[in-house]
Amino acid sequence: MSRSSLSRRLLLALPAAALAGRARANPPLDRTARIIVGAAPGGGTDSVARILAERLSGRYAPQVIVENRPGASSRLGAEAVKAAAPDGTTLLICPMPVLALYPHVLPRTTRYQPVADFTPAATVGELAYGLVVRRDHPATDLRSFIDWARAKGDVTFAPPVAGAPQHMLGLALMRAAGLNVTVVTYRASTLAMPDLIAGRLDSYMSHMAEVAPQVRGGQARLLAVSSEARLPGFPDVVTFAEQGFPQVTASEAFAVMLPAGASPGVVAALNAAIADAVAQPAVRERLAQLQMTPLVLSPAEMGARLAREFAAWGPAVRASGFTPEE
Asked: Which keywords appear in this protein's UniProt record, sorted alphabetically (predicted)?
């Protein structure tokens, strides 16, 4: 290739490179965006939000910050985003049950409709649930736990909080297994695990981010997981479905939502920015530390999943006999 030909190619490439550089330097939004978290700092949702904020800053907006709005089982955060302007600067991140389940469980105090009041943007990952017993429990798997519970005649079970998805799934399991169960509810999700470890509680179901450290530390025994397939971190622990209880197959997707009426262009830009962030090895490693499986759905896929889960939780709540304490 001649020197003049090479020079022409370099000159032709310069505008494209400059445009690409400007695209990276000029994110879709020209103002600070905030991610609303309906929980206190330090929890799983807050951790995911801060991972996203770091990666979306400069990619989606000049700066992305996290704003915590704890209270009412994360519903205060959802209400704040519902009321915000649909200009792309206010994002909600929450476990999907906050949107799909709580309107059924707490209908009188939930002031939003999941499909009508929000615009789906993306998911970040999903989190399975695990059923645990104390470390010296005679049961080593779900079947032996059921046999033990039948012989005992009555079993105590706790979810992290009343009305949580683990509550509904636990009741479905106990009902399918034909067990007599007493549900123990706690005013805070941090109180159940100490009772389990001390032997004051027979069984506990929570998300794997809480369960995994106790299992790895030898304080609790994991009997089953709610994911469709076995978890990479616990390959020897079988799923509920493998043990004959497919109705306890569920996972908690972490949803990123915008207010209703957000423009398709903003939604597409946010989805692309999240997909780019989750594809990065450092982000995937941090999600794995939170026991999350990376999962980025398109806005259409996410909207369809939200609609399915919202429709499915209604009959599940009615079948459980759960009565909300509002």
From this structure: Signal
d(CA 7, CA 41): 55
**Same domain for 177 and 235?**
yes
Model pTM score: 0.87
* Mean pLDDT in residue range 242-254: 95
Domain boundary, last residue among 248, 283, 305: 248
Q: Give the contacts of 163 (CB within 8 A, at least 6 positions apart).
A: 73, 101, 102, 105, 106, 322, 324
Same domain, 171 and 140: yes
In what helix (H) or strand (E) does residue 102 lie, and over which residues does it extend?
helix 102-105
Q: Are residues 147 and 62 in the same domain?
A: no
What lies within 8 Å, CB to CB, of 28 at 6+ separation is 60, 61, 88, 265, 266, 269, 270
Q: What is the pLDDT of residues 130-182, one digit of tens each?
A: 999 999 999 999 999 999 999 999 999 999 989 999 999 999 999 999 999 99
Q: Both 121 and 256 in a single domain? A: yes
Q: Quick one: tokens of 212?
A: 């995994």
Cα separation, 7 vs 12, whole angstroms:
9
Residue-range definition of the domain harbouring residue 194: 128-248
Between residues 212 and 190, the one the model is more confident about: 212
